[in-house]
Amino acid sequence: MPELPDLVILRERLLPELLGKKIRSIEILDPIVVRNLTGMPPEDSYKDLPLLSLERRGPFLNFTFEKMNMVIHPMLSGRFSMDPKYKKKDLCVRIATEGPVLNYADDTRMGKVYFLKNEELDQIPKYKEQGVDILSGEFTLSVFLKTIEKSRQQIRAFLMDQSKLSALGNAYADEVLFAAKIHPKTPCNRLSPGEKSGVYESIRKVLTDSIEYIRAKNAPLDVKVRDHVKVRNRKNEPCPDCGTTIRRANVLGYDSFFCPVCQPAKGEQFIPWNSQENPPEVN
């Protein structure tokens, strides 16, 4: 939390509330998450600076104020709120404007909040190294096929490689592969042209449908909406398509959830992934 569809909706909801609003104060309640690349500006230098824009770049949200940027990479557990009375112990940064208050909370402290100048954005790890934005018009079938053409990565690892595709997280990588009927451990170079095209179409459809669902749900900003997912975190539940028990596998250190019937493994496997029985936990 949040992943790409969540960030799209966050931007949609934050932008009209904050655009043009001037900063009144910045409170750093937990400095562990803060990265001051040029040093935290003194209060008299940022007070009254208006928000000029809010853009998403992959998993980053870039708040551009006059003379200063604040870039937030929420990673796994970052959350946002505009509740002025938000006082939970995991609150890390609070930006008070002449209107709303923006709170950033993170109970694992994995996310990062960067204060810097616009020309220093390339100093943020992975910010400039993002691959093609999978929600942009540049993400065409031909671009996807060229990107995956020579990859020998397992398909799930490929989908989550932000230097290639910007940017799928754990939940939607699982959902894309379920929609495409591809086993998460399948090497990219063993996918047929039709299967590769199917993965591309699944990326577009899963993200579009998820964005529409989360938008319609209109949940509080700090609530993670995941009740629409079909396999993610549904181990031992029945597959919504065939009823087979959903299984979990480890793919390069990440949990992956899949249906062994709808997403059969290719070729002979050391672990019987295609078995419908539920074996002991294995990597």
Automatic annotation (TrEMBL):
Give the matching Gene3D superfamilies: 1.10.8.50, MutM-like, N-terminal
Q: Which InterPro entries match?
A: FPG_cat, FPG_N, H2TH_FPG, Ribosomal_uS13-like_H2TH, Znf_DNA_glyclase/AP_lyase, Znf_FPG/IleRS
Obligatory cofactor(s): Zn(2+)
Organism this protein belongs to: Leptospira ellisii
Query: Where in the numbering of this chain does the FPG-type domain appear?
Result: 230-264
Molecular function terms, GO-annotated: 8-oxo-7,8-dihydroguanine DNA N-glycosylase activity; damaged DNA binding; DNA-(apurinic or apyrimidinic site) endonuclease activity; lyase activity; zinc ion binding
Q: Where is the Formamidopyrimidine-DNA glycosylase catalytic domain?
A: 2-111
Catalysed reactions, semicolon-separated: Hydrolysis of DNA containing ring-opened 7-methylguanine residues, releasing 2,6-diamino-4-hydroxy-5-(N-methyl)formamidopyrimidine
Task: Tell me the classification of the organism that encodes this protein.
Answer: Bacteria, Pseudomonadati, Spirochaetota, Spirochaetia, Leptospirales
| Family affiliation | Belongs to the FPG family.
For this UniProt record, give its keywords in alphabetical order, as a comma-separated list: DNA damage, DNA repair, DNA-binding, Glycosidase, Hydrolase, Lyase, Metal-binding, Multifunctional enzyme, Zinc, Zinc-finger
**Designated name of the protein:** DNA-formamidopyrimidine glycosylase
Q: Which GO biological process categories is it annotated with?
A: base-excision repair
